[in-house]
Structures are given as C-alpha cells and as structure tokens.
Design a protein that fits this description.
The protein is an alpha+beta fold. It contains two helices and five strands; from the N terminus they run αβββαββ. It has a single domain, classed as Trna Endonuclease, Chain: A, domain 1.
C-alpha cells in the first residue's frame, strides 16, 4: 500500500470515529459498484448519508491544500451514480443526503470540516 492510500484510509477512520461520536450508525464502508465508490454510508436517524472523505496531510510549508476541491466533477458523477445504485438495492432508504468530510492531518489532533448536504452534481437520485 502506498502512502497516499494509507493517508486516505486513516482519514476515513478518523471520519468514521467522528460521525459515530455524533450518533450516526455506519452502514457500509468503501461501497463499490460499477458506477463508482462511496467512502462511508451512514444513518443519521432516518436519513441515509453518503459521505465522501477527503484527507490532506500537513505540508512542510505549513499549508494543507484544499481537500474539498479534490471532489472533481468526474468524481461527483461517479459518486452520485454509486449512491443511486445503493438506493435501488435498499428501497427502505427514503431520505438521503450527501456530505463531504475534510480531514486535515497534522502532528496533533486531526482537524475535521463536515460539510452537510452537498449539492454538487446535477444528477438526482
């Protein structure tokens, strides 16, 4: 496994711990289908939440680089296709939203920015 993958997996674990502390229930991690991948699928009460996690590590110049900007249009389309696929398989999920969680790793505690109800793609479920 390369360093980029290790940082991504660490960020996903941090995000899972964070949302569990908020009371969310983790339904699935790294959900894959032909359309794409979703890092975390969770339940926030009766709402199914599809979560894209973007992780950045501390750079030597003291800056992080933007995590949310890494959610490109291509990634957005694949993400929404995967969410639509999940909803077809799980018709009991009647309410849903898309969140992005940015995780910034530094030498201390990670910094988390939770962006709820992202509206990033034109395609609707």
């Amino acid at each position: 496994m390369n360093k980029k993958n290790e940082i991504g997996l660490l960020g996903e674990s941090v995000a899972c711990n964070y949302i569990a502390e908020l009371g969310y229930t983790i339904l699935d991690r790294n959900y894959r289908c032909r359309g794409g991948e979703i890092d975390i699928i969770a339940a926030d009460g009766n709402v199914t939440v599809f979560i894209e996690v973007k992780t950045r590590s501390y750079r030597s110049d003291g800056k992080f680089g933007s995590a949310k900007d890494a959610v490109t249009v291509s990634k957005q389309i694949k993400f929404t296709e995967a969410a639509g696929n999940y909803l077809k398989i799980h018709p009991e999920c009647t309410k849903c939203r898309i969140d992005v969680i940015e995780v910034y790793l530094n030498s201390g505690n990670p910094v988390i920015n939770h962006i709820k109800s992202c509206r990033f793609a034109k395609k609707r479920f």
